[in-house]
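Fold it.
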Amino acid sequence: MQPLLTTLVFTVVFGNFAEIPTGGAPPVLFYLCGLLGWNYFSLTFTATAGTFTSNANLFGKVYFPRLILPTATAIGNLFALLLNLGVFAAFWAYFHFFTDELSSVPGVVGRLALVPLLVLQTAAVSLGCGLWMAALTASNATSHT
C-alpha cells in the first residue's frame, strides 16, 4: 500500500505540477519502478544498520558468524520486494496489454531480464552500507560504555 500511495503522490506532484518527463514511460510505472529499488534498499539498510546493537545479548551468549543476521535481514526483505514487484507487474501488464503507452519505450521486455541482477546489486550495496553503519554504531556504543 505504501509504494502505491507514494507513487500516486509522485505522479501528481512530479508529473502534473512539475511536469518532469519520464522518457515516454507512463508516470505511474516510472515512479513505481524507482520506488521498488529505493524501498528495498531503505528497508535493508535500516534493518542491517541496527543489527549489532539490537542483538548484542545474542552475540554475547552464542557464537555464530556475525554476518548471518544481516544477511538474513536482506533475504527476508526480498519477500517484501517480491510483493511490490507483483504490484508493479500488474501495472506493467495493464499498460502493456491494454494501452499503447509502452510501445514508445524501446527494449522494455529485453530489460526485464536484467531485473535479477539489479536486485542482487541493490541487495549487496544495501547490505554493505548497512554493515558499515552497524559497525560504526556498535563501535560508538561500546566506546560510551
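The radius of gyration is 19 Å.
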